[in-house]
Design a protein that fits this description.
The complex is a heterodimer. Chain A contains six helices and two strands, in the order ααααββαα. Chain A is mainly α. Chain A has a domain of about 90 residues. In chain A, a hairpin with a 2-residue loop joins strand 1 and strand 2. In chain A, helix 3 runs antiparallel to helix 5. Chain A is elongated, with a radius of gyration of 23 Å. About 5% of the residues of chain B have low confidence. Chain B is globular and about 65 Å long. Classes of the chains: A mainly alpha, B mainly alpha. Chains A and B meet through helix 2, helix 3, helix 5 and helix 6 of A and helix 5, helix 9, helix 10, helix 12 and helix 15 of B. Chain B: Pfam families: SSF.
Chain lengths: ~210, ~550
């Protein structure tokens, strides 16, 4: 059904995140899709040459040898409930790796852009003489700084997307499957009950 | 502007109206999952990144932005150019949080935050702040559109403004109530294509006029503007003003950059794509499109300064909203020629469509805040605190029994019915206020909407995603602290009283010198969240934070 919808809407299907679970219809979710290889060749830690593209899933690892993932698949959550799964995943080496990669890119980039733009505005109101200094032709320092910010935004967007595609997307997808499998392996009575009660006011299975 | 183009303008307005009605009609005829929240708030969640990128541009760039940014460049040169930079830089912040918002959220910002703190108080707080932002934004857009259209039609009477506001309000309500997000999205896409296409044609015409020589364009604009060299250096807008005015400028710049990531109608757009990766790609498209729009605004503004008679340009007010229409008349061969009249009519129609697409998106986001956050939480009051404290599981991955499914479906349809009523209520309120305020200067409301979004919505979002110790009290304090400080500071500022241009020129209760509260209220919002967290009785729930963090970064159990 999902495939039908997808082709109906002309969806591009080059998205590794794009899977049945994400948009799940009314049918129960059973086995993980066969497209996802469960066994992967271990990769050395440095993954600079990660040959991944957005298209398809070549047998590349996510940077950690299987033994170090800390997430033996199928292991039920320690707290014997669906929610106990999340702290276990959070503590796992693979997730720590994912979080580190995201934060190391996003936090400095966000801070740098904020400071850059505030500095630009501050210089404009506090030191207009500096910004009026000619650089080349009619272009002065202020206009050059403005145009440089345009270029910087485009560059950052491209770098961020590239970083996410090469360094995060696959790791996230694997963790997503493992988390969902662990949740399924240990559905606690409480979580099912509360899901049913919450479903009546804020949404449940479609 | 002569009245020669009025017929053509009205015809094109009619075309915009017909397209809006047709799109809504097509969207409303879909029977698949009709009436479900996924359909109404998220348009079915199956838009492609390209479509969503265009729709975000359509929902973000309003007529005041389209005409105003070029107008500021035309009037104030360098000081006007600054805004185009901030308009784009704001999207960096959106790009950096969009995947997490998409992974954790269902429809509104409160979904993201409520996943890790006590749901009810946070939903009520964020519902209040989001509705406030939306109503402020709606009033500013509707009043702005009324005066713009009246100006473009060449009539300065109150009737044109009143009718514009009424027609716009009726169309917006019709498309939201009957078409939901699907209709709003396609209206926004059509509008974005019109806007960017129109901007591109005009920019190319300007560049052709100068033989593609940007230096000649800038030099000619500086000479023709009457300011000479001063046109291209800082100072025309803020140079002679005191420190209050300069701080005000910084304040607005800060709100513009930080507020975009907290605007409810922008965040709502990310629920229309299936995955976090698709949401990221939508923002990539948006950055490309907004960037080219900003560059086109620069060209159009300098072109207007170079080609339009300076006195005419300054004659229409301090915002320069007529710069683009005047420029298109000049490019078409003069205001009285057929080409000039046609271009002016096209610009007016694009401005009309631009406002319509923006207000429809804002109304939809406001209705989601009312129905999904406020109404659902207030209705849950009777079930006691124990229920509210219980960990709310979102979608069960196991379909429950048939009876429960049916009950859930009817509850969800009930929520959509509430949302439709809420859309009518919010829309009617905004139209009513706009009619009362149609002669007033309400430009500051856009700045206030951005300030509230940056002070109340952004801190709580960032804390919820990145701060392990964040608690319910922190979230509630942060939202109310940012919201109340922004609104109070504006009420005590010169835009409300104490100056000839103020809302109440006769009264004077000014205590705060800046017109834009962002510089103070944004830090206050962050500070309130930090203090509230420190002063909480209990500590943060580590398990729930683990859930939020894992879900936000991996997409596990994303809907």
């Amino acid at each position: 059904m999902i495939c039908g919808l997808r082709s109906f809407w002309g969806m591009r299907i080059d998205d590794p995140w794009h899977d049945a679970l994400a948009t799940g219809g009314p049918e129960p979710v059973g086995t993980p899709p066969a497209a996802l290889p469960r066994q992967r060749a271990p990769m050395p830690r440095g993954e600079h040459g990660l040959p991944s593209t957005e298209y398809g899933l070549p047998p590349a690892g996510h940077g950690l040898p299987p033994g170090e993932r800390g997430l033996p698949s199928g292991e039920p959550g320690p707290a014997s409930g669906g929610l106990g799964v999340y702290p276990a995943v959070q503590r796992s080496a693979a997730f720590q790796q994912l979080r580190r990669r995201h934060r190391r890119f996003a936090l400095p980039a966000g801070a740098a852009f904020l400071l850059m733009h505030l500095g630009f505005l501050l210089l404009t109101v506090a030191a207009p003489g500096l910004m009026a200094r000619p650089v080349a032709g009619v272009l002065n320092a202020g206009m050059a700084a403005g145009l440089a910010q345009f270029a910087a935004v485009f560059l950052l967007a491209w770098l961020y997307a590239r970083h996410a595609r090469l360094r995060r997307d696959r790791l996230a997808l694997e963790l997503r499957w493992e988390t969902q499998e662990m949740t399924r392996a240990a559905p606690s009575a409480a979580s099912v009950a509360s899901a049913a009660s919450v479903a009546s006011d804020k949404g449940g299975p479609r | 502007m002569s009245g020669g183009h009025q017929t053509l303008t009205l015809l094109l307005f009619g075309a915009v109206v017909v397209v809006t009605l047709a799109v809504t009609n097509v969207a409303a005829r879909r029977r698949h999952r009709r009436g479900s929240p996924e359909e109404f708030y998220a348009g079915g969640r199956f838009f492609t990144p390209l479509e969503n990128g265009f729709a975000i541009v359509g929902g973000h760039i309003s007529a005041p932005a389209f005409l105003g940014m070029a107008g500021l460049v035309a009037l104030y040169g360098y000081d006007g150019m600054l805004w185009t930079v901030g308009f784009l830089v704001a999207w960096v912040l959106v790009l950096l949080v969009v995947e997490q918002v998409r992974n954790c959220g269902r429809f509104t910002l409160a979904d993201v935050v409520a996943a890790r703190v006590r749901e009810r108080p946070v939903r009520i707080a964020l519902g209040c702040s989001s509705v406030t932002v939306s109503v402020l934004y709606l009033v500013a857009q509707l009043v702005g559109a009324g005066s713009l259209v009246a100006l473009l039609l060449g009539s300065h009477g109150g009737a044109a403004r009143t009718w514009t506001v009424l027609v716009m309000g009726a169309l917006m309500l019709f498309s939201v109530v009957f078409g939901g997000m699907r209709a709003v999205t396609w209206i926004q896409i059509v509008k974005a294509v019109l806007l960017l296409g129109g901007g591109l044609v005009l920019s190319v015409l300007v560049l052709l006029r100068f033989g593609g020589d940007l230096t000649a364009l800038l030099t000619s604009a500086a000479e023709h503007s009457g300011h000479g060299e001063d046109f291209l250096v800082p100072g025309l807008l803020h140079g002679n003003a005191g420190w209050a005015s300069r701080l005000d400028f910084l304040s607005l710049g800060l709100a513009l950059v930080l507020g975009t990531a907290g605007l409810p109608h922008i965040l709502a757009r990310f629920s229309t794509v299936p995955t976090a990766g698709a949401a990221r790609r939508s923002v990539m498209w948006t950055i490309g499109l907004v960037g080219s729009f900003c560059l086109m605004s620069l060209i159009l503004g300098t072109g207007a300064a170079a080609l339009v008679d300076t006195d005419t340009l300054h004659g229409s007010g301090p915002a320069g909203s007529t710069a683009v229409p005047l420029l298109s008349a000049a490019l078409g061969g003069g205001a009285d020629s057929a080409g000039g009249a046609a271009l002016v009519a096209v610009v007016a129609a694009v401005a009309f469509a631009a406002t319509l697409a923006v207000v429809a998106g804002v109304t939809l986001a406001a209705s989601a805040s009312v129905a999904h956050d406020l109404s659902a939480s207030l209705a849950r009051r009777g079930r006691g605190r124990a229920a509210a404290r219980r960990v709310p599981a979102r979608r069960s991955e196991f379909p429950t029994a048939e009876s429960q499914g049916a009950e859930a479906r009817s509850g969800r349809r009930g929520e959509v019915a509430v949302a439709r009523v809420a859309a009518v209520g919010v829309g009617a309120l905004a139209v009513g206020v706009s009619l009362l305020a149609r002669e007033l200067n309400v430009v500051f409301l856009v700045g206030l909407a951005f300030s509230v979004a940056a002070s109340a919505n952004l801190p709580v979002l960032l804390y919820a995603l990145f701060w392990r110790r964040f608690t319910t009290r922190g979230a509630v304090w942060s939202v109310y602290g940012g919201l109340l400080s922004a609104v109070t500071l504006v009420a005590l500022s010169p835009v409300v009283s104490g100056s000839p241009q103020a809302l109440f020129p006769g009264r004077n209760f000014v205590c705060f010198p800046l017109e834009n509260p962002g510089l103070v209220s944004i830090p206050l919002g962050f500070l309130a969240g930090w203090l509230g967290t420190l002063l909480s009785r209990g500590s943060a729930e580590a398990v729930r934070y683990a859930e939020t963090e894992v879900r936000s970064l991996t997409g596990a159990r994303a809907v």
